[in-house]
Amino acid sequence: MVLIDDIRITDSEPVSGATKRSQKFRQLHRNFGRLDERVVDEQREGYEEGSLVFTDGTSVPFTYQVLDDRIENTIDGETFVLQEI
């Protein structure tokens, strides 16, 4: 007997950076509770750095930056390309 599970064939586009970022937020929410506060430690034009604080007190680092050819958001070490410019 052969059992094949969770295989999908699709002609759709790869998952976008925004979708992956949403999935990351859902994972963080499940692990640490809702987002309680967004603390910005450094901010300048096209760049923001700080931490996301969740209800259980967990603090997760983030950066948001506008580069020459894309917009990137890094959350807890995972980078998401939100938009190609």
What does this 3D model show about the protein?
The protein is an alpha+beta fold. The chain has a domain of 49 residues. 19% of the residues lie in helices and 46% in strands. It is built from 1 helix and 5 strands. Strands 1-2-3-4-5 form a 5-stranded antiparallel sheet, covered by helices on one side. β3 and β4 form a beta hairpin. The radius of gyration is 16 Å and the shape is flat. The N and C termini lie far apart (50 Å). The model has no long low-confidence stretch (mean pLDDT 89).
Give the strand line-up of the largest sheet: 1-2-3-4-5
Distance between the termini: 50 Å
Question: Main sheet, how many strands, which sense, barrel?
Answer: 5 strands, antiparallel
Average predicted confidence as pLDDT: 89
Q: Into which percentage range does the β-strand content fall? A: over 45%
Fraction of residues in helix? 10-25%
Poorly predicted tracts of residues: none
Going by helix content, strand content and strand pairing, the class is alpha+beta
Report the strand count: 5
What are the secondary-structure elements, in order, as H or E?
Answer: HEEEEE
Which of globular, elongated, flat, extended, rod-shaped describes the shape? flat
Number of helices: 1
Rg over C-alpha atoms, rounded to the nearest angstrom: 16 Å
What is the fold's blueprint, element by element?
Layout: H1 17-32, E1 35-44, E2 47-54, E3 59-66, E4 70-75, E5 78-84
Antiparallel strand pairs: 1-2, 2-3, 3-4, 4-5
